[in-house]
Amino acid sequence: MENILSKPQYLGKRVRLEKPELLAPAGNLEKLKFAIHYGADAVYIGGQKYGLRSNADNFTFEEMREGVEFAKKYGAKVFVATNIYVHNEDIEGIETYLRSLYEAGITAIIAADPAIIEVAQQTVPLLEVHLSTQQSTLNWQAVKFWKDEGLPRVVLGREASLEEIAEIKNKVEIEIEAFIHGAMCSSISGRCVLSNHFTDRDSNRGGCCQSCRWKYDLFEDGRGSEGNHAEAGQPEALLPGITQLPLFEEEDSAFTMGSKDLCMLEHIPDLIEVGIDSFKIEGRMKSIHYVATVVNVYRQAIDAYFEDPEHYVLKPEWLDELHKAANRPLNTGFFYDTPDHEDHIYEPENKAAPYDFAGLVLEYDESTRIAVIQQRNYFKIGQEIEFFGPKGTFFKQRITEMWDEEGQLIETARHPLQQIHMKVDQPVSYFDMMRKKH
Amino acid sequence: MTKQHELMVTAGSLQECSAYMDAGASELLIGDARFGLRLPGHFSEKDIREAVRMGQARSVKVILSLTNIMTNEMLRMLPDYILFLRDAGVNAVEYCDPSVLAAVKTYAPSIKLHWNAEMMSTNYATANYWGRKGASRIAAAKELSMDEILELKAHLEIESQIQVHGMTNIYHSKRRMVESYMVHQGRPVKGGNLGRERGLFLVEADRAQEKYPIFEDENGTHIMSSDDICILEDLHVLMKAGIDSFKIDGFMKSPTYNAVVINAYRTAMDAYEADPASYRFREEWLDPIRELQDPERELTFGFFYKEQVY
Predict the structure, then answer these.
(1) A241: pLDDT confidence band, cut at 50, 70 and 90?
(2) Is B39 in CB contact (< 8 Å) with chain A?
(3) In Å, what is the CA distance from A298 to each residue of A182, A252, A307, A417, B211?
(4) Which of A42, A91, A276, B234 is 20 to 30 Å from the Cα of A101, by its Cα?
């Protein structure tokens, strides 16, 4: 960070030392509870309308109220993504929808389209409006425009570098939110209608079918200036009449636009010192195991920094933890430089994360050292498992003894949500998770 | 008198400006790749002054494309550029980033503002919002249906512009996708020419007939549609609705092709404006376009009559 903050234009400016918000995705009510219990200061969810994940398990207003109640106990906030680009037919109903969000106790909406932003400001002025990353805001003047429009927060485009963020923070007094972990559009947000063209699904209204991760072949038009694309003064045809000249060999990997996932865990001090107010984790479609693991790790890293900024060091076990939930290779996006060939995924994707969520701790009896565990995936005697939790629980053990609800000794846990009693090697608490390798 | 519609075309050089005005264009969209996106050619400050002079002599408007997504670095150049555009006498600028709107309002309030957020210009409420901020026209998204366009127009408080012909951008990244791929394959491109004149395209496994042009420039990687919009057959529907400006995107087309296209639309517009009641589309207007159309690229109605889901 020194390289940026020591530049003349930043001298004399304070180095921000307020704790940033850790903002996590919550695809459903259960994920919301895990995200908050594992350390998120705020979560963002999708409702039934106007969100960009039309396939997700989105919240009803009733579920939102329950989520807000749960969040309140932790002092956490709930935001709702209303981040589509609106079409005419969506306009009617915005007002009613936003009123219902406010009545459900939602703190903020994340919106890209002024058609939603303006209605929110007029009808529910106490509902905060955060400008979505879908607006691809990359400069301080645009940030200032939205501040002047009354918005308290801007989520920057994913193409903003640390240096650009530093300049924005120095020029405009406004909350800045940035993605720090998770999957990324490789396009500029919103600037992609591949789904519309390939499958008639509108990407900017939640229909994205991730065509950027499909496989393509790259060719050159051999017709040169014969071709209609050519302008005057261009080279002669390479191979007259040949329209399709492959730029790959049989054994080459296919062309793709798929990006590696963002991971800024190794750069927490940079993110804090540049003054980013909210650290956002991507992934409303991700599993409970993913959300809990990722939130847990970033929570620990941020807290460790603030406990002693001078002596902060990255703990290798945090990275190990992240890799247990990651299903794609990781990189640092645009924070330090423009992504290149090492930042895209050309090889077949290994979609599954290496670990599964196997059970949830419901109770623990200190005298007997027996925990009650709700089954979330198959496990059996002799298997090696790991327990982890938000308050520092972390240990490995083998399953030695377990019983069903009737007290019968059992060999395997086969039934979803079955309550299993299990001998555990160390103390555990409610909400701790048990995972296993697959 | 019947409403006069504008016929806008993108131009890549002063010669093109001249040829396209001859063919019947009433608005020229030009620019500089530092501030505009996917432009057919670069206009220096001297060229811009000349284009405006040529346009004024024939009552043709010159519109500058400033639709790039601005960075802090680009903002440093923006005020001087806007002041230059004011002095040069350009009629309007197209913008997407609010920083451009702010700069024009500060430095050159006489220049008109056209809001063009590409695939994000999708509804009338947002267009009217930008209208209240100072925009006088919306360049609507190419992914709207005819019904959506007609409803949009009915509720608009500002002018409307619809692309009626040419290819469209379907993906834009700041990453260098082609260069990255070639380096990954161990065959980096010597000299780095991955620009649009190279004629690169992508084919997706299940769509062997569709060729999607791809290229890189200073603004990143761009992928273009595999077909060309052509709505000439139903232009009267748009004229009847009172759409203010019809855009022909001449990007990645030869000047000869563009002149023929302009001529065909001009013919239809003149016929309609002379007598809307007896106007009938004539199939033969399309023949010169079809003759020059790249056989690898189909002329289609784009999204005008396609249902989209989400």
Answers:
(1) low
(2) no
(3) 12, 38, 14, 29, 44
(4) A276
The strand order across the sheet containing A402-403 reads A394-398, A384-388, A433-437, A355-365, A370-375, A419-423, A402-403
Residue B1 lies in a domain: no
Number of domains in chain B: 2
- According to DSSP, the residues that pair with B213 across neighbouring strands are B201
Cα dihedral B128, B134, B138, B139 in deg (nearest 10): -150
CATH number of the domain that residue B143 is part of: 3.20.20.110
Strands B92-95 and A379-380 come out as unpaired
| pTM of the predicted structure, to 2 decimals | 0.94
Q: Alpha-carbon distance B222 to A192, whole Å?
A: 10
Answer yes or no: do B203 and B255 share one domain. no
Q: Tell me which residues of chain A, numbers 219 to 248, contact chain B at a CB-CB cutoff of 8 Å.
A: 219-224, 227-232, 234-235, 243-244, 247-248
Query: Quick check: A93 and A49 in contact, CB under 8 A?
Result: yes
Measured distance CA(B69)–CA(B173) in Å, rounded: 11
Same domain, B129 and B15: yes
Residues in B closer than 8 angstroms to A207, CB to CB, are 308-310
Residue-level pLDDT at A353: 82
Q: ipTM of this complex > 0.90?
A: yes
Q: Are residues B65 and B155 in the same domain?
A: yes
Same domain, B13 and B69: yes
Check whether residue B279 and residue B181 sit in a common domain.
Answer: no
Distance (Å) from the alpha carbon of B274 to chain A's nearest alpha carbon? 32
Of residues B211, B212, B295, the one with CA closest to residue A228: B295
In-domain check, residue B147: yes
Q: Would the pLDDT of A5 be above 60? A: no
B212 part of a folded domain: yes
A residues 295-314 closer than 8 Å to B (CB)? none
Judgement on whether residues B43 and B58 belong to the same structural domain of the protein? yes
Domain boundary among B160, B187, B222: B222
Closest CA to A367 of A297, A424, A406, A310: A424
Residue B177 lies in a domain: yes
Residue A366 structure tokens: 């200190």
Give residues 65 to 104 of A whose Cβ lies within 8 Å of B: 85-91
For residues B52 and B22, what is the distance between their CA atoms, to the nearest angstrom? 15
Q: Select the residue from B173, B256, B304 to test the A interface by mutation, using most A Cβ atoms within 10 A.
A: B173
Residues B69 and B199 in one domain: no
User: A16 pLDDT band (50/70/90 cuts)?
Assistant: very low
Domain boundary among B188, B205, B222: B222
Quick one: B69 and B52 in the same domain?
yes
The whole domain housing B184 covers 172-222
Which residues, at least 6 apart from B103, have a Cβ–Cβ distance to it below 8 Å? A141, B75, B78, B79, B82
3-state helix, strand, coil in chain B (%, to 5): 40, 20, 35
| Residues present in chain B in total | 310
From chain B, the residues in CB contact with A209 under 8 A are: none
Four-point Cα dihedral B288, B289, B293, B295, nearest 10? -70
- Residue A99, classed as helix, strand or coil, is helix
